[in-house]
Each structure stands twice: as C-alpha cells, then as structure tokens.
Amino acid sequence: MKSMRVALTHDEEALSPIHEGICRSPDLEREIILGGQAVDGVETITSFVDGDADAYEPLIDGRESVLEYDVTRTDDGFFLYLRQELGPEGLSLLNALAQETVVVVPPIEVRSDRTIRMTIVGHPAALSSVFEDLSEGVTLDVRWVSDDVTTEPSVSDRQRTALQAAWDVGFYEVPRRNGIEAVADELDCAVSTASELLRRGEATVIGRILDRGP
C-alpha cells in the first residue's frame, strides 16, 4: 500500500459554486471536510470552515441543490452539516475516487487558492489511475508519495509535551516571554534536549502546514 497527497487545482470555470464563493470572499479561507458520504448523487458532509458564517451561508441558503444544512459557530470559524445534490464537478471527482482499493482519508481541504487537497491510500496501480480522467480545467499536483500507509506526519508524545510546555511558558509569544531555558525547566531536562525536541516537533508541524509529506 502507498499514501499519496494530491492537490487538485481548478480553473475558475471548473469551480463548484460553493468553492467559487470561498475563493471570492475575503472572509473565507478554507473548508475542511471532516467526514461524509455520497449516495445516489446526494452528498452528506460535516466540515469546519475557517471564516465567517455570515459570508458562507449566502452560498448555500436557498440554493436548489442544497437539501439541508446546519451551522454551529465557534470563536474562529464554524462547523457545518450539509446535504446537497452533487453537480457535475462533484460527480466527476466522486467517480474518479470510486476505486475498489482506494480510500480517501479525511480531512479534505477546499481552499481559497482554488485547490482541493486530500490524502488517498491504496494499491500503487489504483492510485496512479484515480485521476486519469479529470474534469476539464482541473490539474493534478502530487505533493508527496509515501510507502507508509500514513496521512500526515505527526509529532511524538515527547515532542507534543515540549511544544505544549513552550507554549505555556510564552516561548512562542511575540515578543518572547521566556527562552529555551524555561522550557527545559518545565520539562525537567537539559537545554539541549528541550531544544532538539522543539526543533523536531516544529519541523513536523511546519512541514504539515507547507504540505510536505513524510
């Protein structure tokens, strides 16, 4: 089995109406699809949207293809439950992913830079054939391929503890409230050990943000 991280870049004409709205609005950054399913052309998803619900709701409220939705607001965005009939763009992607030995691993990112980014896992031959028949106006960029069945690089428990300690003592504040010595004191370890744990944890987290794989 292999894992593959891909970005599907859409021309403006190839964007779905909702994706186009995310791209055009300065108050919406991305929609992170956490899970869902599609049955007989009807998609049901739950997602988190980085942005203002007041900017997003006009994209779905009253749209004929939208069967049902619910919004739960948070301090930095909102959760969305959505059921909608898929248009040609969604059906094309759904058909491309309908391989017996391929699994799409959430989350799926629908981004304001006109890309959809996802990780898929499966047999190498199946992965290479998934996107052979993309819709017109959609191009594929393979971000990484791994021999491990993995989705995103993750920090170890010790690295997570170090990152949390650094956050708690103000190491990441601007200006910095405490230095690496305070982190080492919090972890009860040598300064060199604390520094290495932070560097490794930061490299993993930054690599995830920049979409670099294992």
TrEMBL record:
Pfam families found in the cross-reference section: HTH_10 (PF04967), HVO_0513_N (PF24278)
What are the HVO-0513-like N-terminal domain coordinates in residue numbering? 17-144
Source taxonomy lineage? Answer: Archaea, Methanobacteriati, Methanobacteriota, Stenosarchaea group, Halobacteria
* Species name: Natronoglomus mannanivorans
Q: Which keywords does the record carry?
A: Transcription, Transcription regulation
User: How is this protein named in the record?
Assistant: Helix-turn-helix domain-containing protein
Query: Residue limits of the HTH bat-type domain?
Result: 156-206
